[in-house]
Amino acid sequence: MYESKLDFSQIPSLNRLLQVPAIITLVEIYGRNATTAALRVLLTSAREVIAAHGEVDLSDEMLAQTTAARLARQAVPSLRSVFNLTGTVLHTNLGRAPLAEVAITAMAETARGASNLEFNLETGKRGDRDTHVEEILCDLTGAEAATLVNNNAGAVLLLLNTLALRKEVLVSRGELVEIGGTFRIPDIMARAGAKLIEVGTTNRTHAKDFAAAIGNRTALVMKVHTSNYIVQGFTAEVPAAELATIANAADVPFAVDLGAGALVDLERWGLPHEPTPRETLTAGADIITFSGDKLLGGPQAGLIVGRAELIARLKKNPLKRALRCDKATLAALAATLKLYRDPDRLAERLPTLRLLAREANEIRALAESLLDEVNAAIGEDFVVTVEDCAGQIGSGALPVDSLESVALVIHPVAASGKGGRLKKLATKLRSLPVPVIGRVHDDGLWLDLRCLDDIDGFRTQFQKLDIS
Ligand SMILES: *Cc1c(COP(=O)(O)O)cnc(C)c1O
After folding, report:
1. Which of 129, 159, 192, 327 has the greatest number of C-beta atoms within 10 Å?
2. Phi and psi at residue 327, in whole multiples of 5°?
3. For residue 168, how far is its CA from the centre of ligand 1 (angstroms)?
4. Over the stretch 189-228, which tens digit does the pLDDT of each residue have?
């Protein structure tokens, strides 16, 4: 009976609170429903606090302030922009490729209203959404036909399910990749309803292994680009051209999952070579899949190019409908692909390529220009230096080739408790209005400036940093 002695009458009524001027203002900003819901949550927790401690501050002022804070927190979008200073350009957890301006504009325009997404303007009849990118994909890759789905994982699923349902697919043991986020070749194969036949060994697979494994239940020979690892030492893999010959002799298609899918030779910009769809088709692949938001620098998409007869079969699979791309994706992709028609200006126009090709000297100059300001903002417990570092392309592209870059490195001054201080600082930078994401490594918080574009925005964040 102790409970009954508690004084719940101190809890104000909702109706009275809605007459308090500060709360009327909240209703004007956030609406009656949201404000009432926030007040209810607060009053319920007040009840619990009274039950536990007997009393609680329930002044109008306190209630209005707490409600305002709750409503403001709810109004901040969960998904928002951050500064990617991790040194990984195509960071899957940070949204991969930044889009080109033309792609952003196209995306926004398509989102705003009606479009001819699946409507043929010449005939006035139903159209096919793939047509908006088919021709240019064929031009850029040399393929006979093209189609697309939501992402490359979906593209592989569609390909396997269409061409190898209840049949066997040959893949080298050295290529049974796992890409971050539970994409594993053996698992996707099982979900697609195809039977994986592992060929050769982890480090060495030969043409004769494939020749021995191929049989009348084989539906597909597949090569998977080992995007995020390399097998080193005593190794052997069967080149695409040889696999094509083996598959051809057995009259089964040869498919390649290219992963990163650079559409042009990146060596031109001083980057390591990555096999292109055109090269792979020339080597004899019948059908290829690759991502839209990795080295291609476009929106999330899974692109599929190859022989017309195979693409036609994929397009008839009901899974194609389940995996289809959204109109905004198509608009952004079409605009991005158009940039490839003028490779001479690609590095200026495509942010992914521009960031990847950015010279260490330019990044160093940027770091030096920001050094004093960051040093001043960071307080006396830390000191900032400019250091050379090695960044990564990311998203499983070229895992061992690191990009020469330059970072602002924030070090704690005191010798003790460095780890804890750095962790706290990293948390602070992540809680800025536009979070700054770096990397804690070797007693320092490293801010690799390769991907820093909005320099004024970055300065503003550091001015807002409350180091206390
Ligand atoms: C990245 C990658 C995938 C998955 O592509 P998403 O576009 O992320 O779905 C599949 N295969 C390979 C070889 C990859 O590198």
Report:
1. 159
2. -65, -35
3. 21
4. 999 999 999 999 988 999 999 999 999 999 999 999 987 7
